Amino acid sequence: MRINGEIRARELRVIGESGEQLGVMSRWDALDAARDAGLDLVEISPLATPPVAKIVDWGKYQYQKMKEQQRNKKSARQSEIKQMRIGLKIGQGDLDIKLRKIRGFLDDGDKVKIQVIFRGREMAHPEIGRALLDRILESLSDVAIADQKPIMAGKNLSVMIRSNPNAKTEDA
Length: 172
Fold this sequence. Notes:
Blueprint: E1 2-3, E2 6-7, E3 11-15, E4 21-26, H1 27-37, E5 40-45, E6 52-56, H2 58-75, E7 81-87, H3 92-107, E8 111-117, H4 126-139, E9 144-146, E10 151-153, E11 156-163
Parallel strand pairs: 3-6, 7-8
Antiparallel strand pairs: 1-2, 3-4, 5-6, 8-11, 9-11, 10-11
């Protein structure tokens, strides 16, 4: 085990600089082998029995680890929550454009919050908004699934949708 940067185990499994197994040897023999190669002895797996150490160039090892973390960070994209607001009196052409946009967001891996907005006296007929939302969800059913039931919050009826992992792609 490592305490204050020092390897405390008596016996170590040592891996050479090119990845070959040098075998199990004492801590001092491993340090001598690293010193002879002009490199450092780094404990890779302290919980193994016996602990595993590798002979490496410490600066190069740190640089490679940092670059690997940057690559992983770049490839791991966070999904965003996009929002699409729709009025109750929307025409079919405008609705088709909004649905095309929503499909694009879902293809990018984002979640989409769809809000149907009620203005003025439209609040007296929430069933019209629910029918519009049902129509939207029906047209997106091939690529999306709703995370929860539609919720009425103030003057907005909203639902959160995400891409359906079981959706059929156009390629197949």
